[in-house]
Amino acid sequence: MTDVQVLTVDDQPVFREAVRALIISTPGFELAGEASSGAEALSAADRLHPDLVLLDVRMPGLDGIETARILTAKRPDTVVVLVSGHEVDDVTGLADQCGAVALVAKERLRPALLRELWATHRPHSTSVQPES
Asked: Reading across the β-sheet that carries 102-105, which strands appear in turn?
């Protein structure tokens, strides 16, 4: 089986570094690439064809909400998860509005949550299933 290819998108290098370490340490997942803006994310998604995108909500320029709208319209089989360093309650409902499957607080990102999100939301046509 092929590892789940993950694209991370955040304007903060320290968060991209933390998520890189998380993905590398999670069996069944592989870092496909990183982007620091919405525009970079769209370009990277076209080039890399990730299975899963972890997308920061608040970024300068093209924010995560609009990036998710464009990304899910262009690539409906890509699973997009919004992540936020702010109170998730403040932005509840945003995932539904833009095609993302979930909105999670950055501090909740752990291997178990990655596996749970993928198991729950992966496209049914895919054969990519990370090991537990």
From this structure: 29-35, 4-9, 52-56, 79-84, 102-105
Contact predicate 124/77, CB 8 Å: no
Contact 111, 25 (CB under 8 A): yes
Q: Model pTM greater than 0.85?
A: yes
Which parts of the chain register pLDDT below 50? 126-128, 132
Q: What are the tokens at 79?
A: 């699973």
Q: How are the residues of the chain apportioned to helix, strand and coil, as percentages rounded to the nearest 5?
A: 45, 20, 35
